[in-house]
Amino acid sequence: MFDPEGPIIGIDPGVSRCGYGVVKRHSGGRFEAIAYGVITTSPSDPMPQRLLSIATELDALVKEFKPSGMAVERVLFQNNARTAMSVGQANGLALVAAARHLVPVVEYSPNEVKLAVCGDGAADKAAVQAMVTRLLQLTEIPRPADAADALAIALTHGWSGRVRAQAGETSSEASALDKAVQRAMERDAALNREKGSVIA
User: Fold this and answer.
1) Catalytic residue among 57, 73, 112, 188
2) Is 178 a catalytic residue?
């Protein structure tokens, strides 16, 4: 179901709330939000049923939008092991949904997303949400926050080198800021690996 001309789906994984954002790339590098929201499950339901519900919804998203790629937030170690496990389960479901439909999928750390969208790996959620609203020319901040995060993840992938190449852009067409952000993302990824903060 891979469509090289299709939009990009961003996923902010979670079991209670799994955010998704779909952006379409236009000429000149401008992006448009064509859909966003959250997949929710009830904590009172059995975990297998909750995971099945998320998997079904993710599968439906891929079938509906026929994306050129999927971007998923990478799971990092957290102090709360229960939260980390929950996020990891939803992350895995997103990866499977992409693989099932032969959609290329890439994972990005939270800091990589902040760097790409705000130019600052330490930016807070409010700054990311405000920048997403501005970049996508939305009339209001996407709600809930999980949806805004998913849009930010999709934008991060949209600005990545592999998507530029797919669109036929040359490196000379990338702005100085784009290049700086890419270098910062690479440094951040290397730092995460050195600290052992990324779950393999």
Assistant:
1) 73
2) no
CA angle 136, 162, 13 (to 5 degrees): 60
Q: Please state, rounded to an integer, the average pLDDT across all residues of the chain.
A: 82
Specify whether the CB–CB gap between 106 and 69 falls below 8 A.
Answer: yes
Known catalytic residue: 12?
yes
- Our answer to whether residue 59 is catalytic in this structure is no
Contact 119, 177 (CB under 8 A): yes
Q: In what order do the strands lie in the sheet with 69-73?
A: 31-40, 17-25, 8-12, 69-73, 105-108
Interatomic CA distance for residues 177 and 127, integer angstroms: 18
Active-site position among 107, 146, 149, 188? 146
pLDDT tens for each residue of 12-67 = 999 999 999 999 988 777 899 999 999 999 999 999 999 999 999 999 999 999 99
Number of H helices, E strands in the chain: 7, 5
- H helix intervals, 16-169: 47-65, 81-100, 110-118, 125-135, 145-158, 161-166
